[in-house]
């Protein structure tokens, strides 16, 4: 399973917003703090804003806030917001695949991988990541 750069950057940006929720953060400050290319992050923020995961305010006091409480935003939701389908095999959903002969059971395996990943990522919130990052701990499976 490959996690796209868009997902990685989106989750890191949201964790940064959750860690400092007292004020709006600029895209530039988030990009700098997380060592993310600024232009790439701006396009990711468009998707996050469209999904309601962040809100923005223009002007000198402007920036981004989380669109909801960080505990209510799962990593799985972020992945879907920026990449579309949660899990694909060669661009197709696992349940639509069919293989001949000895590989006929493979779609079931792919579906199991998707289910396990979905379970872990759906129960991991942006608040969990921000808290664990502040504590210097990794997310556990």
UniProtKB/TrEMBL annotation:
The keyword Nuclease does not apply. Keywords: DNA-binding. GO terms for molecular function: DNA binding; DNA-binding transcription factor activity. SUPFAM superfamilies: Winged helix' DNA-binding domain (SSF46785). GO terms for cellular component: cytosol. Gene3D superfamilies: Winged helix-like DNA-binding domain superfamily/Winged helix DNA-binding domain. The keyword DNA-binding applies. NCBIfam families: rrf2_super. This is Rrf2 family transcriptional regulator. It comes from Streptomyces tabacisoli.
């Amino acid at each position: 399973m490959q996690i796209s750069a868009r997902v990685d950057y989106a989750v890191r940006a949201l964790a940064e917003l959750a860690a400092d929720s007292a004020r709006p953060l600029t895209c530039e400050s988030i990009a700098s703090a997380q060592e993310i290319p600024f232009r790439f992050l701006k396009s990711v923020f468009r998707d996050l804003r469209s999904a309601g995961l962040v809100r923005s305010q223009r002007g000198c006091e402007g920036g981004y806030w989380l669109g909801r409480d960080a505990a209510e935003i799962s990593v799985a939701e972020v992945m879907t917001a920026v990449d579309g389908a949660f899990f694909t095999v060669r661009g197709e959903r696992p349940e639509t695949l069919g293989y001949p002969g000895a590989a006929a059971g493979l779609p079931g395996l792919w579906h199991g991988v998707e289910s396990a990943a979905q379970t872990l990522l759906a129960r991991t919130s942006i608040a969990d990541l921000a808290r664990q990052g502040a504590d210097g701990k990794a997310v556990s499976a």
